[in-house]
Every structure is written in structure tokens, then in C-alpha cells.
């Protein structure tokens, strides 16, 4: 590391600076100022994007003034969040001048060597899929104007495929030669990401000789990283893993080789794997909204608001049996008021737990496997009743409309998901639940809502016999809110059953919109990350840290910027020291 150390005077414009490269950091301090005005700019080497000879600019267009004495350093610079929950990243650029060419070459050589040593996960070769029809159809333009220039600056070669049909990217990943690629970049929305997720996981299991259909099989973690350049109409995975929907921020995370592990939920029916999910699996309200919105695609993004309102007014609830395998409550809880932010300690500890026998690649995930085997059957908890919605999320699922998400304390990479059960309730109660997703109020602090941190979930419809008997004794949907199950309690759920709240659609539950209810089906559909599942009875298993994204989780803006001068956090991250 000492070999990389370099210190000298450098000029930025007509001001003289003392510049120091210490291996991990590159700092420059103005020297001709009084002490108290001295400011040191400190950039972690891991966040240096590129070093170029001459006076160079790359965005919006590349401009090079080739001089012997100058060099330009490009690096990550944080800017105000502009309404996102994380910080936006921008391309910082400083042009340094040296007294002569020898020193200039020394600086560029040392900086590049430091980059190699301290940023080992930077990609060299990427496979890029662009969905030209995603969102506002700007995928191609975004890639060429924002992303490609950064890849060029960072020396990343890319093979770009503009898709011509749905599932082309998935099929390519499953069948074509991927030798030499470090990662796959998805330019599009959540649907496109899901395609790539399926391709990357499927390819990895094929190569490992593992069967994806068997939920008891411990899947092989994927070595190909996935980068998301948001260019869709819904970009929730990007938002929840970066904290912003911003192509430049995402491109910078890719270029510097950030690596964020991500849990993935495999969804199976009795015979096979149905799909993978990373954000939300929702039955009842969320399934109905998606099914309804599909009928109104012509409305564009407005269809979600319209369908949400219609489905809300229909006030439907559905009978079901939910079984879940609880996660260890000593490790974390969905109501512990923590947030999974960049460098999350719960996720870091989970890495050790999930990969405790990492040295023996044959037994990766061995702990998870035993937890899921039939030995643990007695650990499953079963609840039955009528639900307004049943949701399972492997991450907070935050999005611009709901900055804290479906489950604000969920973790990206702890090997668990949060199961949210919303029992049948009156329409105003459910509205309160929905509204709380847009505010800082706790949506789980309602008597008809339960949340459980889980490793696996099964869902099935009640047998028709039971269904009939519940129907005969069933209470009305307009009962007091507190009559619908005690929050967080297994006994409460069973009590709920004993109270006979379950049953088929009851006319007494109608609210406002008789029309909407007239054709209410006995079962809802599953919304799996924005796709309707073709099956109702499912088994879901969370696979800890199955994939890795070029991201680092949501950065804590308060810790980085809203701090006092001697803030330890800023010192540690060396963003801006006085
Ligand atoms: N060339 C293509 N033609 C048609 N569909 C495509 C093409 N490329 C990808 N797709 C599919 O389009 C779907 C939506 O893509 P994406 O998520 O990028 O956009 P979106 O605008 O956010 O989607 P949505 O229509 O769901 O809001 C994906 O499921 C993907 O499989």
C-alpha cells in the first residue's frame, strides 16, 4: 500500500493544493489559505471513476484538451436527494495541473494502480439489455447519453442488445455463451429486471446441476452481478436498493463495482417453480388491483390509481389458509423500527450465518437447507380466515409513493421475508392501513394487521366444507375493527377463526359500490412483482443473498450530510472533511 503513496503540490485553476494519495484515499487541501479556512476534499479511491490525461470533460459530451501537464480525476459526488430517500450521485470532476509531465505521469499511474487494488469488484465486461419500449420509451437514449460515456471512461467494454420481444433477455441468459462477462445490466423497469433475474438465477442453477423446481433445494448463489438502469414505468427494485430512481446514480454504482446481496423468494406450486420474486407477492387487494389494471392498459400509468380505487371500493376479502415458518426473532423483527441502510449490520451478520461453510462450496446454504427440511415441519405456524390481503416482501419495497414501503424494517439480504396479513376489516380501517404507507405512521399498529418475519410461506384455499361452515356462521365485514384478529398473535388468529369471521363473499360486507361487488370471485390472484401468477395455492421460500446487484443499499443522507463538523460517520466515509 505504501508503494501507492504519493504526495505533491498540484494546481486546480490558479490555486495551489497539497495532494496526497494514501492508498484508500485521495485528498487535496488548499495550501495558501489561512488555517481555519482550509478545506480538504477527500475522495475514497473506491469512488474514483476514472483518471484521464489532459483536461477532459465527458458529460454531456466528451471534450479532451490534450496537454502534457494536466490530468483529470472523475469521482462520485453526492448531491441533495431531490425527494428520493437516498442521495443522488453525480460525476465529480477536478482538473489538476502539475509543473511537468513526469509528475503528471506519476500521478495517473499511482491513481490507476490504487483503483485496481482497492476496487476489486469493478466490472470489465458487461452484457447490456435495453428494453426500447419500457416506461417512456427512453431506454436507448438514457443508455447512450448517460451510461455508455461512463462505461467508456471506466474502461468497461459492453455488449449491448436492444430487445425485440419479451423474454429475449431471459432466453439469452439461459442459452448463450456468457464467458468473460462480469455482470448483466438491465435498462428498463421492474418487468425487465424480473426477466434478467430469472435468466441469471436459471443459468446459475443449470450450471450447478440444481433443480429449481424443488423448494427444498438450496440454490446456488449467482456470481454474475445485475445492474439496473431505471427506465421503466415502475422502478421499485432500483428505488429500494439504491434509494433513488436516477440513471446516473445507478450507472455510477455499476462502474465502481458496488455489490449488494439480495434475497430472492422462489414461488412454487405443487409441481414446479412458478416464479422468483424480490419485492412483493400479494394476494387479495394487490392481486385484484393488478388484475383490474391489466384490463385498462390503455390508460397508461393512471390505470393503477383507477384500479386501486375500484378494487378498494369493492371491499373484497378472501378466505385462505396461510402457513409460515418464522425466522429467528432474536436476530431481527419487522417491528423493531430499524431501517436496512447501506452497510446494514443485520444483513452483514446474515452473510456469516448464511454462508457459514463458505469454504466448502458443496455445502453452501447448508444451514438454510436443514431449516427448510421436513424436520422443521413442527415449526410452521398456521392461520386461517378471511383476508383483505396477504403479502410477502423480501425487502422494504419502498417506492416514491411510499418512501418507507410495505415493510419499513425489512432487510435486503438477511435471508427472510416479511409476511403481512390484513384480516377482513371495514373499508375505513383498510383505508387507514393503505394511507399509512404514504406517511411515517406505523401501518402495522392496527388491530386487523399482523406482520411476521419468515423464511417460508404456504398458502392454500380452505377446503370447501370448512368454507361452507364458516359461511354459515360468518361475521360481517362491518364489525368493529378490533374483531378481526389480534395483531401479531397466533392465538389471536385462531381466535379469529373461532369467531367465525371466515366465509364466502357476504352481501353484508358491501360498501358503497354494489356494482363492484356483484361479480366478486371466491378467490383472488397473486401479484408477483407486477405479474399475475397462474396458480393460487403456492409455497414460497426465501433464498438468502441469492443474487448480487451493483448497488449498496440506501445511503443514510442524514448521516452523510446533516451532521456536525466532527461527525464520525463523515470522517469514516471521508466525504467532506473540514
Ligand atoms: N422488445 C420488447 N417488446 C415487448 N416487450 C418487451 C420487450 N423487451 C422487454 N419486454 C417486456 O416488457 C415488459 C415490461 O418492461 P419494463 O419493466 O422494462 O417496462 P415498464 O414500462 O416498467 O413495464 P410495465 O408495462 O409493466 O409498466 C417486461 O416484462 C419485458 O419482459
From TrEMBL:
**Provenance organism:** Betta splendens (Siamese fighting fish)
What processes does the entry annotate via GO biological process terms?
ceramide metabolic process
UniProt-listed PROSITE patterns: DAGK
Source species, domain of life: Eukaryota
Keywords attached to this entry: Kinase, Transferase
Query: Is Magnesium one of the keywords?
Result: no
Q: Which GO cellular component terms are attached?
A: membrane
Q: In its UniProt entry, what is this protein called?
A: Ceramide kinase family protein
* GO MF annotation list: ceramide kinase activity
